[in-house]
Design brief:
The protein is α+β, with helices and mostly antiparallel strands. The protein has 5 helices and 15 strands. Strands 4, 5, 6, 7, 8, 9, 10, 11, 12, 13, 14 and 15 form a 12-stranded antiparallel beta sheet that branches. A hairpin with an 8-residue loop joins strand 2 and strand 3. The radius of gyration is 20 Å and the shape is globular.
């Protein structure tokens, strides 16, 4: 289903087309401020309406106003992604974000194995796309008292789809090329269907994550080439190409066994890129030093 974004106030529920038009024109909420759940400096509102020949009800929601809170600080880590990947996963502990993520719909990708999803060998017919199938792994927690591991529960596969018979209970952060998460299913309410509510969850999730990441540069036409060709760490060049020089914010890349095509870069956190797939409604954390090819 195609959606159009509308930059007008919202009150957290479905409204009529007449109310929608009035609110956009007047720049005020179509429901009295007393009944609007969006309040305070921490929130803003958004609306969207299903497209097509028979547009559905207008969906509205409340979301944190950017940029609150600011980007998450990440320790200097050279070429490694351990600290930034851990910091990116810690974002999911936020109560507003946690309810929008399916923690039992995850995949963990290294250079030689995938856990939680086999590799799909069928080329995509449209973008954005990835080469994963259904995400069935579970992200349980950041391992306590151990900065090197994640606690997971996920079947391990050799590419493309050979099961190893192993269900992984932990994965090394130093070996991770990427982690993928499915958006949590929404709940039907009134005229809002489950797919529409899930899409609303996905859009909120992207907005919340974007608020906490280093934004992409919008310096148009500016040359900022400062290369150290003796440095064996390629993360600066990868991050510069995908963020500073990427005005479209679209990315096609291969990292370990993961292939992403036409996904959207939400921002970066240290050496970890955070990307979104509007087709599958998935979020990816990708280690820059594991990226081998760019499209």
């Amino acid at each position: 289903m195609n959606y159009s974004n509308w930059n007008c106030p919202s009150c957290g529920g479905a409204i009529s087309a007449e109310e929608f038009a009035a609110s956009c024109g007047a720049g005020s909420c179509p429901v009295s401020p007393q009944s609007c759940p969006c309040s305070g400096s921490q929130t803003s509102c958004g609306c969207e309406q299903p497209g097509g020949p028979s547009p559905g009800p207008i969906l509205c929601w409340c979301q944190p106003a950017c940029p609150k809170p600011g980007p998450v600080p990440v320790p200097e880590e050279g070429c490694c992604c351990k600290a930034s990947m851990r910091a990116a996963l810690q974002l999911l502990c936020d109560s507003q974000i946690a309810g929008l993520v399916n923690f039992d719909g995850a995949a963990f990708v290294t250079d030689t194995y995938t856990a939680g999803s086999p590799v799909n060998t069928t080329a995509p017919t449209a973008t954005p796309a990835d080469n994963l199938t259904t995400l069935s792994g579970s992200f349980l927690r950041l391992s306590p008292c151990n900065c090197d591991l994640l606690d997971i529960s996920a079947p391990v596969y050799l590419p493309p789809d050979t099961t190893t018979g192993l269900t992984a209970s932990q994965v090394s952060l130093c070996e991770l090329a990427a982690v993928a998460f499915q958006t949590a299913l929404g709940t039907a309410e009134g005229d809002v269907t489950v797919p529409e509510a899930t899409t609303r969850n996905y859009r909120q999730l992207k907005q919340l994550l974007s608020c906490r990441l280093t934004p992409c540069s919008t310096r148009c036409g500016e040359c900022s080439c400062k290369c150290d060709c003796g440095d064996c760490c390629c993360t600066a060049g990868i991050l510069g190409m995908l963020s500073d020089s990427n005005l479209s914010r679209k990315a096609t890349l291969a990292a370990g066994l993961l292939v992403l095509q036409g996904v959207t870069l939400l921002g970066t956190l240290g050496n970890t890129l955070v990307l979104a797939n509007d087709t599958e409604q998935r979020i990816y954390f990708v280690c820059a030093s594991k990226i081998q090819f760019l499209g």
